[in-house]
Amino acid sequence: MPTRVAQAPAAVGYKPILKRLAAGMIASLALSTLILSQDAEAERLRTDFDRALQHDPEFQSAIAQRDAGVETLEQARAQLLPQASSNLQRSQNNTDSRTQTLIGPSDRSFSNYPAVSASLQVRQALYRPKAWANLAQGKAQAQYAELNLLAARQDLATRLMGIHAEWAAAGEALASAQASVQLQMRLAEQLQQLYRAGDGTRTDVEVAKARIVQAQSAASEASINVENSRLAWMQMTGQPGDAFADAQASSVQALRLREHLADDLPLMHASSERWQEAAREHNPVLRAQREALESARQEVRKAQSEHLPAADLFAARSYSKSAMDNTIGTEFRTAQVGVQISVPIYAGGAVNSMIRQAQANARRVENELLASTARMNRKGEASKRSRSSLMLRSKAWALVFPRAWMKIRQCSSCSMRDAIWHAPMRAPCLPGHG
After folding, report:
1. CA-based nearest residue to 80, from 49, 48, 125, 111
2. DSSP assigned state of 241
3. How far is residue 287's CA from residue 276's CA, in Å, rounded to a whole number?
4. Ramachandran region, residue 84 (left: φ > 0; alpha: ψ -120 to 50; beta: rest)
5. How many Cα atoms sit within 13 Å of 110 on the Cβ side?
6. What is the pLDDT of residue 246?
7. How many other C-beta atoms can be found within 10 angstroms of the C-beta atom of residue 375?
8. Rounded to whole angstroms, how far apart are CA atoms 25 and 323?
9. Three-class SS of residue 95?
10. End-to-end CA distance of the chain, in Å?
């Protein structure tokens, strides 16, 4: 009977393993900034983060959005400060006039005479409830813009860590796919020798060739993933292409799994309840939504203030000469100091409509805040339930992969699946596999 040779599965057979490896790499990358703060790998991450702050388009857009948002506070404050305006007009006029008298019409003509008028006015708000509500709303909107920028900064750090993790995982996948290609080629060569010696079948040879093509396809896909990660890193950090080799080496080195890695996972709070309380207090997204709720409530105040009167203190000085047809040749100098009061009476129901609209928007924002808080609480509970599983998987994969690769290198005829299965238990090769 033909001798049966163990065949290694194609690269696609262990894709779930690589997904778990990527998850472990993300955890180790987070640890590199918390535990290994003095290592070169962590320094590389900090350098990339500083560069990303300067070059990442999404973060630059968030900065511009913050800069635009804080200007609303200045605009609202300006409405409560003194307002000064001036006006100057000079013209050359020709006027013909006719006046009816007892003896008949009297015609007069004034040709090419100058007319001058100038005024200066200073106004200070005394009572403007809408302006005060607008100021409170501007403060909330400015704080909302700042918190959104803080959330964008945290998102930038998360995206950068994700790129490094995906980059390292793609490198590991490429290395494993290339190893699979070499293993399949060795198996195909052995099957070819057995076939020539009369101990193998033509079917085994053709299947081995097909597995080589399949493994080469997986290696090509992994190479594309590495290139995509490189391009994402270049776009985020603004680095040229010639910095790729150093960055790739640093990212892969920083993400190597260590034994007992899960034991080092830190917890800033002793319980999930304390964690949720801290998140509700400090999470920038929730804080921004609370500011958005405050802004919506101030919008209600602004709409309600349309029913209230407004009072301004003003002072004016004016000069005019021949400014009107009936004052040709006459000069006027006037000074005014007084209080102006405006009282709304009826606006056709528009004010009540604006109040209802603002109240509806405030309810919408309030419910969005409640929904976001509920989602955060659910995620906290899910994290609490999955932490033990994550720690166990981190320990397992930290042990599996180094020994599995050593087993594969030492035993070319052993199945890759068997090598990975027996590596944690330090088992020898399967009987009959050398």
Report:
1. 125
2. G
3. 14
4. beta
5. 15
6. 56
7. 10
8. 82
9. strand
10. 19
- Residue 298, classified by CB atoms within 10 Å of its CB into exposed (0-12), middle (13-18) or buried (19+), is buried
Q: Is the dihedral of CA 284, 285, 291, 295 positive or negative?
A: positive
Q: What is the pLDDT of residues 302-323, one digit of tens each?
A: 999 999 999 999 999 999 888 7
What the block records as the tokens of 303 is 């709409």
119 forms beta bridges with 87, 318
- What CA–CA distance (Å, rounded) separates 415 from 10? 11
Instruction: Name which of 193, 226, 218 is nearest 234 in CA terms.
Output: 226
* Cα 302–chain centre separation: 31
What distance in Å separates the CA atoms of residue 389 and residue 384, rounded to the nearest whole number?
10
The pair phi, psi for residue 95, each rounded to 5°, is -130, 130
The pLDDT tens digits of the residues spanning 112-151 come to 888 899 999 999 999 999 999 999 999 999 999 999 999 9
Please say whether the beta carbons of 149 and 63 come within 8 A. Answer: yes
Tokens encoding 269: 């709070």
pLDDT at 87: 93
